[in-house]
Sequence to fold (489 residues):
Amino acid sequence: MNQHTVAGVEVSGDHWIGGRRVASAEQFDDVSPIDETVVARIARGGVEEAHAAIAAAKAAFPGWAATPPAERARLLHRIADLVEQRVEQLAIVETTDNGALLRSHLRGVMPRVAHNFRFFADYLVHDLHHPEFDTRGHRNQVSWNPSGVAVLITPWNAPLMLATWKVAPALAAGCTVVLKPAEWSPLTASLLADITVEAGLPDGVFNVVQGFGEDVGDALTGHPDVSRISFTGSVPTARLIARSAAANLTPCSFELGGKSPFVVFDDADLDEAVAHAVEQYDNAGQVCLAGVRLLVQDGVHDEFVARFVERASSLRQGDPRDLATDIGPNVSREHLERIDGFVQRAIADGARVVIGGGPHTELGGLYYRPTLFADAAPGSEILTEEVFGPVLTIQRFATEDEAVTMANGTEFGLAGVLFTGDPDRAERVGAQLVAGTLWVNCFFVRDLRAPFGGARHSGVGREGGTWSFDFYCDVKNTCTNQQRWTIQP
Ligand code: ADP
Fold:
């Protein structure tokens, strides 16, 4: 038994396959970014474990697919109940594992995890309509049929939250699941496995394979028994997965990176705009949809910078378990060094550091100072590549056209944030921005009924509401000639 006590909570470091814990010959260290201590040893899965999990999910599929929707929904609500009962445990384990704020986990993230299950349970029972219509005496009936085994590969920046965006709709739809959490944040997926047992989910319906993408990735994504692959992570990894999935033409849903613009016009409410701009440092900048490129119109640019600097300087950086902390550590030393690489190259390229510009070494763990760059050269790396750390840039613009050109000037298109006091301008400019999600005079308002995903290299497909259901199902139209019944129905 590979059991660990993490922040007072018992967590298994093993896989969860076919209703039992499975070990691997090899293990790896799970390191907390708060202080770089090893908090658990995790089974390092390989091809064998990946294939065992797919086999277990395949075996469980017919039973789960045939389970009446109301019963599937009841089990998902039961999972949600247990998540709610364990918010504090899940929160402290996640914070220890990936360094994100305990405050956010307690108040927002873990309750949302429960909501993810409730939403898709209710969607299945109440909102999934089956359209029927006639074509010249023929009856069309559209049905959503679970596709089979869904492989879900998730990142470390919001581990349980992003995993359950996929797990909940996949299970609700009647798919069975193999979840591969990120190797930098493996723990809450393991706790979720415990919760599914207690909730009464049949063996094999939900499986967890731990390990490194390079060890298990191809075995999971190139397997002919996998019907769907949903992945959240980086563009290079998505390319590898797409290549591997191509062998079986397995449909993929990708939610990838971003370099989203945060556009502020002269007529905006400046206090609101500044408050939300500083929020782009949330989760130490490890948020795919963050508006990291501040684009501010000439008339308010200098005032915006002054207020931004004042507000950003008051952020408290430190231990994420302290509820007063605003910015915690970054997830790993490797990632911290990657962030610093971007920053140092930007400085070498001539960008001007307005605030920050290096790690916060006095704090001990993996902390990076909130950083703002000005005067970066157009087209330079810091303006075009995703850093995924607390690093923003600011640029000025004069006209709407210029703002739109700058906003759309990357290969990404995940989100956009727009601040203006003029509704006509919001509509005009908003219509031209390339983004899967556009926030106007607000940020981070999320409703699971809305589609979420990215344009261009930010993704393929959408998650949320009916988009998730469509993805995990084989949507079928049955067209019946009503005049050909020999026995009257
Ligand atoms: P990042 O750490 O930049 O988010 P990744 O996209 O590599 O990067 O990580 C997201 C998830 O993808 C993790 O769970 C990781 O283990 C997984 N992963 C990495 N490489 C592969 C691969 N070749 N195939 C499948 N999954 C992978």
Notes: Residues 153-155, 180, 182-183, 212-214, 217, 221, 233-234, 237, 240-241 surround adenosine-5'-diphosphate (CB under 6 Å).
